[in-house]
Each structure stands twice: as C-alpha cells, then as structure tokens.
Design goal:
Elements: H1 2-36, E1 47-59, H2 64-80, H3 85-102, E2 106-116, E3 130-140, E4 156-163, E5 169-174, E6 179-183, H4 205-213, H5 225-236, E7 239-248, E8 252-261, E9 264-272, E10 278-285, E11 292-302, E12 309-320, E13 325-333, E14 339-340, E15 350-353, E16 358-361, E17 369-373, E18 377-380, E19 394-397, H6 412-438
Parallel strand pairs: 6-16
Antiparallel strand pairs: 1-2, 1-13, 1-14, 2-3, 3-4, 4-5, 5-6, 7-8, 8-9, 9-10, 10-11, 11-12, 12-13, 15-18, 16-17, 17-19
Helix pairs in contact: 2-3, 4-5
C-alpha cells in the first residue's frame, strides 16, 4: 500500500514536471514566432506610411545627456554660421526656445513617417537589410499651460539612410530657415512598423537569445537554434511560461507569457496567436528593477492593402532610476493615413531645395563643407545620396580657412608668427643688400 502511494506521488510529480516543460517550450516557441512576425521582418512589413499625433509626458528633470546634446547643437551652429553673428544669435535663440519647450511636462507633435526598403527593394546589395525613412514634425507647444494651441516654427524634415553594414546618413531640412544639414551618425527613431508587434528591447533576455541566432535579413532560424536557446535559457536561469489567456480589443484573445528569474518578473508579453502573433502588451525590466519599458497597443484596425492588423493607439512608458526619470509617450494614428506594403516612388524620399538655401555637409565633422543654392534643386536618397560637389545648382561657400595651406597641424597664431618672422627676415636681407650697394 505504501509502495503504491509512493509510486502515485512520483507519477504525479513527473507528470507535473513534464507539463511544466511542455508549457515552457510552448511559451518560448510562441515568442519566437512573435519575433519572426515583428515589423522588422521583410515578410511582414516592407514599406509603410502613416501620420500620428504624439503626446509626450515627462516626469523628470532634463538629464545631463540632454543638456550635453543641446550644448553640442550650439557648437555646431556657431561653426556652421561662423562670421555671421546675427544669424548665429538668431539660431541660438531658436534652439534655446526649442530646448526650453522640450523641458515642459507635456509636448504634443504631429508626425508623418514614410519607410521603405525593409528588404532590398530600395538600394543595397541583394539580401541586405536596407531601410529608408522620411519623417516630418510639426510642433504644437504650450499644451500644458492653458495657452491657445498654435503651430510652432520649429518644423523640419528628417531623412535616415541605414544599411546593416554601413553607418547611418542623417539629413535635417528646416524650410523656415532654408537650412539643410547632413551628418554621418546614428539617430534614434520611433520605429512605427513595430507598433503593436513584438519589439526587440536591448534588456530582453529572450530577444537577445533569438537575435543572436536568427538571420536578420530573412528572419529564418538555423537548424541548431533550439538547442542553443535551451542552453542559454538554462545559463541565464530563466523560466518562461504561459500563465493566462486574456481578452482584449472587444473579444480578441491573447496568450500571457511571463519570463522570470526566481521570483523576479523580468519580462511579460501578451501575444495574439490567431491574428498574426500580434503583441498588444510588452513589459521588459532590468534585474535591478531600476529600469523598465512598457508598451501597450489597442484598437487594432485592418490595413486594406496588406491585410495586416495595426493599432490605432500605442503607448510606451520608459522608467529609469526607479521611476525618478519617467517618459510616457502616446501615439494616436490619424485616420485614413496608414498604408503598408505599398509601392513607394523615389520622389517620396526627395527634398526640394529653393534658391538661396544653405547646405552644410558635416560628414567630415572637423571640416564641414558649405554650399548655397544658386538655383532650385532636389536631393534624394533613393537616387544615390548626397554628392553635393557635383550638383550644379549648388555653389561652394569658402571661408578664409579654406585658403590657408596645411602647415602640419600648426594653429592659426603659430602660422601668423612664422609668417611675420619670415617677412622680417626678408626685409632685413633687403636692407643689408641695399646697404652694401650704397657703400
């Protein structure tokens, strides 16, 4: 009797452990499918255009990083308009106003975003992951202070050209100031093709495991993927389990998956298996708990061209320093502006430049090159980039430094010192020669 009881208990324990293993395996497999169905996969979204209204609520004081960026922008403006003190003063006043506006607790913007080339459709070698983005901002200031809402003059167009094997090219066009600035640097964007789908977060253990092995162009998995993933899950001490099923969006169902280490919740996902592995909720935290990122999508619609579900409302909360520094961003899709997987023309990536506009090329940051538009012209990423030197409608603007030959790294005053000494020596030699002739 005692033996039968012990055998029964052992069988129950084994069944429980097998059930837990099956659930963990099922949970991870669902997350893998959600990752493969993300907006960065070319089989999901290849191109897209949308307009959003974004409200950002800040629960923090400006960080040292934001102040550093502001001071860097001041330095760039001083360099860009060197010699034009009136223009420098006006531009510094403009960005100071913009910086003060960014420190307000509530900021509202309207964004129009265009993306294409999530595969090799536009540029790059076959198989490259290649994206182009076209982004416009219209700032609406003073929302939190009962002041009538108006459109600020700080309006601009931003273009990013990104290739997996190359650095990013960033272009900023401000039509009100007639300024086009080009940088070769990394820029952070709101990746709208990820809204409402699984989004890779650097602090996610699961995403890191998948990303390490997945083909980032095709999003396919190698044969040894699950063996590798299993070893990493054990190494990190993670438990990944389906914990519930919930209703959302008026009857749609999502599977709840939790990722824990011990009793600490590190990640939580709601994944809708039946509607293309949508991810209406995602929470990722660090081990210490000082940082978390939470994303919530709702009110999904079906985009007609692609047949894909897309959220009309998307919210992202980023909390740092245990909540002392918190940013809450809410995106609302403007009705009838969303198109996915449509054909994008080259001209949609073009920027029309008027006469007298100024162009500053900062791709060589320590020696920027400046131009002025003597005729109307167009610059376009889709047509090969920004070879300003060969654009006939642009005229190079030279500064005095351009005419001073290189002297092996001498500073300006050193050059003038040696030049002065040379002139004095020449004058002394002439004087000596004339003195000999006289005597």
């Amino acid at each position: 009797m005692r033996t039968n009881y012990a055998a029964t208990v052992l069988l129950i324990l084994i069944s429980f452990q097998v059930t837990q293993a099956v659930e963990a395996s099922e949970a991870f497999a669902i997350m893998v499918k959600a990752y493969q169905s993300s907006g960065f996969s070319p089989s999901t979204i290849r191109s897209g255009v949308a307009e959003f209204e974004r409200v950002t609520e800040l629960h923090n004081n400006p960080s040292a990083r934001s102040e550093e960026i502001h001071h860097k922008r001041e330095e760039i403006i001083k360099e860009q308009y060197k010699g034009d003190e009136v223009r420098i003063a006006r531009e510094l006043e403009r960005i100071r106003d913009s910086y003060e506006e960014s420190r307000r607790k509530l900021i509202q913007e309207r964004l129009k975003i265009l993306m294409s080339g999530n595969d090799s459709t536009y540029g790059g070698e076959p198989g490259d992951k290649y994206k182009r983005r076209f982004e416009k901002y219209e700032w609406i200031p003073n929302l939190g202070q009962n002041i009538p809402v108006g459109i600020d003059l700080n309006f601009g167009t931003h273009v990013r050209d990104e290739n997996a094997s190359k650095s990013q090219l960033y272009v900023h066009w401000v039509p009100n100031n007639r300024d086009l600035v080009v940088y070769d640097r990394s820029v952070s964007w709101a990746e709208f093709q990820e809204f409402g789908r699984f989004r890779h977060t650097p602090d996610s253990y699961v995403a890191a495991i998948i990303r390490h092995k997945i083909d980032r162009t095709t999003f396919e998995l190698p044969a040894d993927f699950y063996e590798f993933a299993d070893s990493k899950i054990k190494e990190f001490g993670l438990s990944i389990n389906v914990t519930d099923e919930i209703d959302y969006d008026n009857g749609a169902k999502a599977t709840v998956i939790e990722v824990k280490r011990g009793n600490r919740l590190l990640e939580k996902y709601h994944i809708d298996v039946n509607r293309g592995y949508l991810c209406p909720y995602q929470y990722v935290a660090t081990d210490s708990g000082d940082y978390f990122n939470e994303r919530t999508a709702k009110d999904y619609i079906v985009e007609e061209n692609s047949g894909l579900y897309y959220p009309s409302s998307y919210r992202e909360v980023i909390s740092r320093s245990g909540g002392a520094d918190k940013t809450d961003m809410h995106y609302r899709l403007v009705p009838d502006t969303l198109r996915l997987n449509h054909t994008v023309s080259d001209h949609e990536f073009a920027i029309d430049i008027p006469v007298d506009a100024r162009v500053a090329d900062f791709r060589i940051i320590d020696k920027p090159v400046r131009y002025i538009a003597v005729n109307k012209g167009t610059v376009s990423l889709a047509k090969g980039g920004y070879d300003f030197a060969n654009m006939k409608w642009l005229q190079r603007e030279y500064s005095p430094e351009d005419y001073i030959p290189s002297t092996g790294g001498m500073t300006g005053w050193t050059r003038w010192l040696f030049t002065g000494i040379g002139i004095i020596l020449i004058l002394l030699a002439l004087r000596r020669l004339l003195w000999k002739k006289v005597h």
